Amino acid sequence: MKVLWNEHIVDRDQVKLDIEDRGYQYGDGIYEVIRVYHGQCYMLEEHMQRLTASAKKIKLALPYDVTLLKEQLKALIAVEKIDNGEVYLQITRGMYSPRNHQFPPVGTVTPVLTANAIPFERPTDMQERGLTATVIPDQRWLHCDIKSLSLLGNLLSLDEAIEKGFDDALLQRDGYFTEASASNVWFVIDGQLYTHPDGPLVLPGITKIKVRALCAELGISLHEEPVAISQLPQIQECFLTNSVWEIVPVVSIDGQMVGAGDRGPITTRLQQAYIDAI
Ligand SMILES: Cc1ncc(COP(=O)(O)O)c(C=O)c1O
């Protein structure tokens, strides 16, 4: 398997990472997951913009220019012969010794970039049948807009959901839904679509950008406003979005059917429009 290591595409076993890399020790770094369809990165420009924004928010200088990075990602997909799949890209602040919480002075540390590309088909079964979910407190920090490597809050939430016998967790903070363990969450109430506004409490999803545009095209009214947990009985449809899954219905929440307990009409329309856009 070939991977991207800084600016070079190399055999995976040639990569050398230091035990004092701050990404490894503190989760001090950022990442992106980019969908690949027919051998091409989907919405690559938007991913690069979010990567750049995340880097800025943690005072990390990208190791090299985004134009070159885009070229290298395309080369990686070509060399790995990925048709449908995903690229995982991460950048850590790099190695600094001895270990010290303080950000190293500028110029004393070199960020480390790695990326790999794997095949992954569209999860059409899950997109039809949907998932079950449970509502749990959002136990994450207050910078959820940064696509940070530190994902323990998300992982603990998913683990709790699975332990309770559900597929995923819908997170709630102060009585309002924020997002799911690894996706943005959307609700249909009175035939109108709602999702949490961008800001520090949620990740600004790339799929969200596309769904927003599709709503405008299809004439679906979209409100970027938080939905309260107390509105649960009014929810007619619920779905999750992320780059890898696209649009996936949530058919029950804490054992209560959402709508008719299957994929609803607005979800289905958006899924179809999403496929057409791809
Ligand atoms: C917490 C969280 N919210 C939202 C998303 C959706 O982001 P995107 O549509 O860019 O994949 C993700 C994706 O991994 C996520 O982890």
Cα distance spanning the termini: 27 Å
How many alpha or pi helices? 7
Helix content: 25-40%
Strand content: 25-35%
- Biggest sheet, in brief? 9 strands, mixed
Query: Architecture of the largest domain in CATH?
Result: Alpha-Beta Barrel
Q: Return the CATH class of the largest domain.
A: Alpha Beta
Indicate the CATH topology of the largest domain: D-amino Acid Aminotransferase, Chain A, domain 2
Low-confidence stretches: none
On the 0 to 100 scale, the average pLDDT is 98
Subunit structure: Homodimer.
Organism: Candidatus Enterococcus testudinis
InterPro entries: Aminotrans_IV (IPR001544), Aminotransferase-like (IPR036038), BCAT-like_C (IPR043132), BCAT-like_N (IPR043131), Class-IV_PLP-Dep_Aminotrnsfr (IPR050571), D_amino_transT (IPR005784)
Keywords: Aminotransferase, Pyridoxal phosphate, Transferase
Summed up:
The chain has 278 residues and is of the alpha+beta class. It has helices at residues 22-26, 44-57, 66-79, 124-129, 152-163, 206-218, 265-277; strands spanning 2-5, 8-11, 29-37, 40-41, 85-92, 112-119, 131-137, 168-173, 176-180, 184-189, 192-195, 222-224, 235-242, 246-253, 256-257. It folds into two domains: 2-119, 2-Layer Sandwich (D-amino Acid Aminotransferase, Chain A, domain 1), CATH 3.30.470.10; 124-277, D-amino Acid Aminotransferase, subunit A, domain 2 (D-amino Acid Aminotransferase, Chain A, domain 2), CATH 3.20.10.10.
